Amino acid sequence: MQHLRIIAPADLVDQVLTTLEDSVATTSIVRIPKAATRPAGDLVLCDVAREGLSDLLDRLQQLGVQHEGSISVDDIGVEISDAAKRASRAAPGHAADAVVWQEIEQRTHEETSLSPTFLTFMSVATMIGAIGVVFDEPILIVGAMVVGPDFGPLAALSVGLVRWRGRMIAQSVLALAVGFAVAIAITMLFTWLLTALHLMSPADLLHSRPLTDFIWRPNALSWVVGLLAGVAGLLSLSTAKSGALIGVLISVTTIPAAANAAVALAYGAAEQAVGALIQLVVNLAAITLGGVATLVVQRVNQRRRTARSPEAGTGGAGRGIRS
Predict the structure, then answer these.
(1) pTM score, two decimals?
(2) What are the DSSP calls for 216-245, one per residue?
(3) Is residue 314 part of a domain?
(4) Which of 74, 111, 161, 172 pairs as cysteine with 3 (C-beta 3.0–4.6 A)?
(5) Which residue range is the domain that position 66 belongs to?
(6) What are the pLDDT digits (tens) for 266-316?
(7) Residue 62 and residue 118: Cα distance in Å, rounded?
């Protein structure tokens, strides 16, 4: 269950209460008149089954509550209530599969910020990857994958394409383009520095690397892995199963490919540089496509469940208090 807190302006509070009471997914509805001062309005509280939350938020936003009031959502760790159980059973679908579009849109939008922190993480991850590539160390490659923050903008790009948010799409593309460009440039400087200190040499890059040479040798499986990673990544974000996300991050070779490209460019190894850049582009495209496909399927399924819901005109599963 989720806890919904609404500050409703006086001219909308009756419509807000009607919207909440008409949803089978709501329970424990409470109204506290004139409780809010900034913004001014009535405080309305209720609990909502996750399965019905996205549709309910859409309805509240259509009323325009967010313009003069506010809407916030919190997780409920424990709720002991028969009414809450009835609301969960009445709401269409399953809580584990429910997609709250407003939640994933907000979460991913925050990842598109082209901040110094984002660029630092991108650069640090790529430098770690560069050492892993040159010395054929898979552990360092995995570390670079986990440190890299590039999945955030990729997820935001997928959400932006499905929800058709032009600004989110533009910010995601900008974050990825600038992020990888800065990371590759800094890693090239890092490579030259390590070379000057005699800690690395072109021979290290060009010698046999059986454990990591897949990074600059893209093939059909590169596309398949990227596609599956996009599916798993967006599924983990959209269904609040974040534990699966770490597995996604270490399955994608975007950061290692950028690292291999940077070192190869620094040493003039054209074949490896081209191959690594192709690997990078393939992974970025495949992850985005997998993410978009996942979200489209989820949206279609959610609309079908909503269309079959007996909600219209039945009223909520748990009645609250109007005062």
Answers:
(1) 0.79
(2) GS--HHHHHHHHHHHHHHHHHHHTT-GGGH
(3) no
(4) 74
(5) 2-98
(6) 999 999 999 999 999 999 999 999 999 999 988 887 777 666 655 444 444
(7) 34
